[in-house]
Design a protein that fits this description.
Strand 4 (72-78), helix 3 and strand 5 (111-116) form a beta-alpha-beta unit. The chain has helices spanning 12-18, 58-68, 95-106, 138-155, 169-179, 200-206, 227-238, 252-262, 272-283, 289-303, 313-323; strands at residues 28-35, 41-43, 51-54, 72-78, 111-116, 129-130, 136-137, 159-162, 188-193, 242-246, 266-270, 307-310. It has a single domain (23-323), classed as Alpha-Beta Barrel (TIM Barrel). It is built from 11 helices and 12 strands. It is 39% helix and 17% strand. The structure holds ligand PBG. It comes from Pseudoleptotrichia goodfellowii F0264.
Length: 324
Amino acid sequence: MYKRHRKLRNNSMIRNLVKDVYLEKNDLIYPVFIEEGENIKNEIKSMPGIFRYSLDKIDEELEELVKLGINSILLFGIPEHKDEYATESYSKEGIIQRAIRYIKSKYPNFLIIGDVCCCEYTSHGHCGILDEHGYVKNDETLEILAKIALSYAKAGVDIIAPSDMMDGRVEKISKILAKNNFANIPVMSYSVKYSSSFYGPFRDAADSAPKFGDRKSYQMDFRYAGDALSEVKADLKQGADIVIVKPALAYLDILTKVKETFGVPVVAYNVSGEYSMVKAAAINGWINEKNIVMEQMYAFKRAGANAIITYFAKDVAHYLNEES
Ligand code: PBG
């Protein structure tokens, strides 16, 4: 006799009973863009519904998150001044350092994750320091990344998330944190980060597009799968506590492998291009936005993600609230 799979799909009660993938608000991490200046609330053109805020207007965003029950935020900064060496990125009075102090003092219940990278702070838009040929210098860049991480830690950040893709950054950051009595701050490393066109809208959002060339000499090549586990292994050895796989949708095979191989907490980064594509189709009435978004969120969880960084976090929280 053949198996009647449909028995367990008969009605919503039995479907709810046998389901084995769960999604909750605690899984969500919302990216927040904070721009230096005053009285700024600008919608990002390629990301409808996502805004850049100046610090004096950020309460509006944070209060909405509190109301919705979203506890984790990932901060990106847009400084007024950029230079070749990303000096604003580790300044005590930098936009993110000030934002961390402000948010910590006013909203102590947020888990604040600080993205550590140079690209928003360099005049050339690359994720590190350049040599005379425009090549990003690895070890010199590590010095800057360590300074950024330490400055975030001093400001009170909860988690450090390096996204630059230099080799050895996790070790460098872990060491400087430990040396300065911040050994308890977890490192959430963008261990698997592909050189991807899915980041296009983010670069509008963060003003971080490279002025020349691309990021292929430091971000990963999506045609070479063998690199992924090796990157994660190296980061874990260097002290990473949580690893990110990015982008998410086109890389769920990698995410599953990472989860099954290492068993550590894994975060899916549902990136800007993935957001914009869904939004564009939804605005045109071509798809059911809610259903598509939720199907994707469950896909990340089913693939093995513990948490999801997503620009849809507020929408997802609304949908989950409607259900409960
Ligand atoms: C910074 C950084 C990027 C993203 C997160 N951190 C951009 C990049 O690497 O070019 C992309 C996020 C997104 O597309 O949503 N290095």
